Amino acid sequence: MTGMSAMRTTIVIGAGLSGLMGALALAEAGLRPLVLAKGQGATHWTPGTIDIWGADDRPPRQAIQAIIESHLHHPYALIGMHAVEEAIARFRALTEAARYPYVGGLERNVLLPTAAGALRPAALFPVTMAAGDVRLGGEVVIAGFRELRDFYPPFIAANLAAQGIKARGVYLTLPSAFRRREYTTVTLARMFDDPAFRSEIGRQLRAQRGDAARIGLPAVLGLRDPLGAVAHLQRESGAQVFEVPTLPPSVPGMRLFALFQNAIEQAGGRLQIGSDVIRGDGQNRRLVTVWSEAAARQQEHRVERALLATGGIAGGGIRTDQAGMVRETALDLPVRAPAHRADWFAPRFLDPQGHAIYTAGVVTDSHLRPLGADGEIVYENVAVAGATLGGVDTVRERSRSGVSLATGWAAGRILAGFAS
Length: 420
Ligand SMILES: Cc1cc2nc3c(=O)[nH]c(=O)nc-3n(C[C@H](O)[C@H](O)[C@H](O)COP(=O)(O)OP(=O)(O)OC[C@H]3O[C@@H](n4cnc5c(N)ncnc54)[C@H](O)[C@@H]3O)c2cc1C
Hints:
Layout: E1 2-13, H1 17-28, E2 34-37, H2 60-70, H3 75-97, E3 102-104, E4 110-113, E5 119-122, E6 124-126, E7 140-145, H4 153-162, E8 167-172, H5 185-192, H6 195-208, E9 214-218, H7 226-237, E10 240-244, H8 251-266, E11 270-273, E12 276-283, E13 286-294, E14 297-308, H9 312-315, E15 318-320, E16 326-328, E17 382-384, H10 394-397, H11 400-415
Parallel strand pairs: 1-2, 1-14, 2-11, 7-8, 7-9, 9-10, 14-17
Antiparallel strand pairs: 3-6, 4-5, 12-13, 13-14, 15-16
The structure holds flavin-adenine dinucleotide.
Flavin-adenine dinucleotide (FAD) is lined by residues 13-19, 36-42, 45-47, 51, 276-277, 309-311, 314-317, 329-330, 386-387, 400-401, 404.
């Protein structure tokens, strides 16, 4: 069965951070974007923090400034500092309005504990994680539930202690009325939506905290009102409470996706998850049609403008194979990648130089329009954003979600005609 939308539309391909930021910009410009995505983006897998720069100790603003001066093809340099700042401001206002505020910015990174007790730098993060910054000092209690796999408070505390942070791990008991057969991050988050559950957990935290002023819990403190849940637990326990990211599915990422979806739909956009974009056809350097495939259904979309935000290799936007092929999956745009498969990976997994294959992607001009090998614009009405952008190893830089946030917003603004 095929369906065809007769009107030319604004299409966003991909529903990760870059596609969602771009769709928001397009929807707010009145262009009623249709978001087509094969599946959920990295939001549902990642800790929910926005890493703008973490490769060294420089504050993100200083690192980006240096990139702008020295690395002209880097996505941050292509869009410029003003666009990065604008994206962060819009994102912070969006999360604030949804009562799930993100704090931080370009001035410094905080160091937040992971579920392995490692420390990771983060520039922008939900306020529910803010008290986790280990530089705040003092003793930290890490509390969790035996029922939640892959979150072991004594292990986290021991690893923090090995790094000089006074930490203690404790287990809490699930109240009998809330016992289930299966426990995931999502089932626990639903429990934390219930004030009765929070009161009971808060009492246990007070009993266990001793002299500690801060308590870390798995990042499952409610889907509906995490801010209210943290405030409630703080009142009951008498300590500052913070969330520690868990293994997937990521509750913070799900909250983020939900608030974006709500804002995009409110502004007249639409999200269609489960639609794999398999082809695009162009004419006179303009993309005119894209084809998407859902279960037993192919759809043809006439295109006015399109944002490609398909997440690169990790997101499914770039596919590689054994023979050394590297392909862009939605529109078959030209991809820049290491010439030989043997050059894809460095010998060591944690090589300081990173792995060359992570630089594979689509190269663009400063309007984020895709370029061919000859440097010519492939499609005038397409912008590329996020991890599908090539030429830079954002994994090594720890800048991946920052680049996705900033280029997604910039691409949406450019396509809406706001940027010159
Ligand atoms: C497990 C994991 C952990 C990570 N941890 C971190 C971290 O800690 N910090 C960090 O900065 N980054 C991390 N990342 C990187 C993450 O990819 C970026 O942070 C960023 O979110 C990427 O955003 P994006 O919008 O570019 O792509 P994604 O979030 O990957 O979204 C891509 C979207 O495009 C869709 N798509 C792909 N191909 C097609 C197609 N042909 N048709 C239709 N839709 C398509 C996908 O279904 C998805 O909706 C992690 C990634 C993974 C996978």
